[in-house]
Design a protein that fits this description.
By secondary structure, the chain is an alpha/beta fold. The protein has one domain: NADP-dependent oxidoreductase domain (TIM Barrel, Alpha-Beta Barrel). The protein contains 11 helices and 10 strands. An 8-stranded parallel beta sheet has the order 3-4-5-6-7-8-9-10, with helices on one face. Strands 1-2 form a two-stranded antiparallel sheet. Helix 5 links the parallel strand 7 and strand 8. Helix 1 crosses helix 2, helix 5 runs parallel beside helix 6 and helix 7 crosses helix 8. This is Aldo/keto reductase. InterPro entries: AKR (IPR020471), Aldo-Keto_reductase (IPR050791), NAD(P)_OxRdtase_dom_sf (IPR036812), NADP_OxRdtase_dom (IPR023210). Pfam families: Aldo_ket_red. Keywords: Oxidoreductase.
Length: 335
């Protein structure tokens, strides 16, 4: 059992985003059955966000919680506006917003407390100290149990943790998305902050071949999934499948086992939250627990992150990688 500041989250969680029609139409009852199977299989951490499906994903998780609240560590997020305001679609982090957002999430989820509440994206107009200070008030009131941050830089994490202990950072981390290893993860390890890895299977790329994407598939918006870049990245997936076969595991299990190995190597507690619509994929993913990869496998996988063509996000300034690039450019310009 993995624990972040006393919050027992298990070895692997479940990311709810795929159940919110971001990869095409989803069947609500089938999605609910998938959530029940995840809990039946032993998953404790269920991760959602107020923006997934315009709030419908929280409502779906709420149907699960109606009968199984005590079995679930509930995580959700706020900060990305669900509808545009006068300034358009953006992140919002002013002190008044966390209270407004959490009350709406509580209603959709049908609960009176959220175990782990994330600031989903940083509002560049608001000091992170202000946002975390507002979240700390919600902790003191018992509305939320723990504070999380998503896609923050190392310096933002440091500043936030000085206001109130941060329980977990959530960012993309996988064989082909390793930018967080440079600064964010060492800072999290030093501060005793857990790491929740979203898209640990590379949005499906590492689990099975991705050659073309259907209309409505969210991945069409990501640079590395656009046609020419996707073709250029194909050898990365081929290497993952070749190494998985040599290790006697599936590509998804290889990717999850690699993440566990990296967490141990870097001294940070890590819990991946792969997302799927299929119950059998949950079982496959959970079977990665305890797999130890050979030195040969780790050596073969090590260079893959540097071979990726295309950024991991459409709006790079919204993620930690983009702001760290900006910080580095500013430092170089001032040198």
């Amino acid at each position: 059992m993995t624990s972040f500041r006393g919050l027992d989250v298990g070895e692997q969680g479940f990311g709810g985003m795929a159940l919110a029609e971001v990869y095409g139409p989803a069947d609500t009852e089938a999605s609910l059955a998938t959530l029940h199977h995840a809990v039946d299989a032993g998953i404790r951490l269920i991760d959602t966000a107020d923006v997934y499906g315009g709030g419908s994903n929280e409502e779906l998780v709420g149907r699960l919680l109606k009968d199984r609240r005590d079995e679930v560590v509930l995580a959700t997020k706020f900060g990305i506006l669900r509808t545009p305001d006068a300034d358009g679609f953006r992140a919002r982090g002013d002190a008044a917003y966390p209270r407004q957002a959490v009350q709406a999430s509580l209603r959709r989820l049908g609960v009176d407390r959220i175990d782990l509440y994330y600031y989903h994206r940083v509002d560049p107009r608001v000091p992170i100290e202000e946002t975390v200070g507002a979240l700390a008030e919600l902790v003191r009131e018992g509305v939320i149990g723990h504070i999380g941050l998503s896609e923050v830089t190392a310096s933002e994490l440091e500043r936030a943790n000085a206001v109130h202990p941060i329980t977990a950072v959530q960012s993309e981390w996988s064989i082909w998305s390793r930018d967080v290893e440079a600064q964010v993860i060492p800072t999290a390890a030093r501060l005793g902050v857990g790491f929740v890895a979203y898209s640990p299977l590379g949005r499906g790329f590492l689990a099975s071949p991705v050659t073309e994407l259907p209309e409505g598939d969210l991945r069409r918006n990501f640079p590395r999934f656009q046609e020419e870049r996707l073709a250029a990245n194909a050898p990365i997936g081929e290497t993952v499948r070749r190494v998985a076969e040599a290790e006697g595991v599936t590509p998804a299990q290889l990717a999850l086992a690699w993440l566990a190995e990296r967490g141990r190597a870097l001294g940070v507690g890590v819990v991946p939250i792969p997302s799927t619509r299929r119950a059998e994929r949950i079982d496959e993913n959970l079977a990665a627990a305890g797999i130890r990869l050979s030195a040969e496998a780790l050596a073969a996988l090590e260079p893959l992150g540097a071979l990726v063509t295309g950024d991991r996000a459409r709006f790079v300034a919204d993620i930690s990688q983009g702001r760290e690039r900006a910080e580095a450019a500013d430092a170089a310009g001032n040198a």
